[in-house]
Give the backbone structure.
Amino acid sequence: MAKAAAFNARLRVFVDRALSPEAQSRRLAEIAIAERDRLIAAGRASRRYKLWVDGVEGAPETAVRPADGGRIVYRFSIMGAVCTFALSFLINRSPPRSSAPLNPATGKTAHYRDGFYFGIKDSASAYAGKGDSAGRFVPAAQFNPAALSPTITEIIIGNVLPYSRKVDVQLIGGQSLSFPVPPGLFDDAVKAIRSRFGDLVEVKRVYTMDFPNQYRLKTRQVWTTGKRKGLSRGRQGARVESPALIIRPRR
């Protein structure tokens, strides 16, 4: 797949000046609509977009001024494609599913690949700007990338399972942990997203992210190395640390 710079395009159109002003506007509109539909059909642009005609949001393409001054702008939602790629990368890079129960006494299983979630912040939401808790929490299984609007301001991707940080860094108390995949899951996802979509989005990994019903530490935590070895870390009842990606569209 080509890099996402292909999504950012400008089309200059020269219209026959012998046409009437109204005919010039119609011709500009026809060309813009045809190019829009071509990009969508080729999979290079989303079916969800916002439209500006001569700076007026939502105006019909046919309202464009005649040649030498008329401007039609489509802002397509790229976040759906970015999120689909990011989720696919994270799942394929995660430990494979296992039939072994997480709790042998109950037979309860938990698969890391099934634990991803999205946090979605939208400037058009009634809750926009009301703090970090504003935004929708969506399990990956219920996520619909085609439903993302061009007004999305931020996407968070993490994993609800309490051992997500262990899968990511594969260290605990300075000692290595063994997983069937290499460490650095979220850092590698950042590199992959930047490589493909860096012209269109900003992305970073954060050490921990809060989310609904996050697991809380039930036992006393102690330092295992250094001068404070054996002393309490005072984290009983705290939310377990859980890494995440933060993705924002470039404006």
Observations:
- Residues 1-7 have pLDDT under 50 and may be disordered.
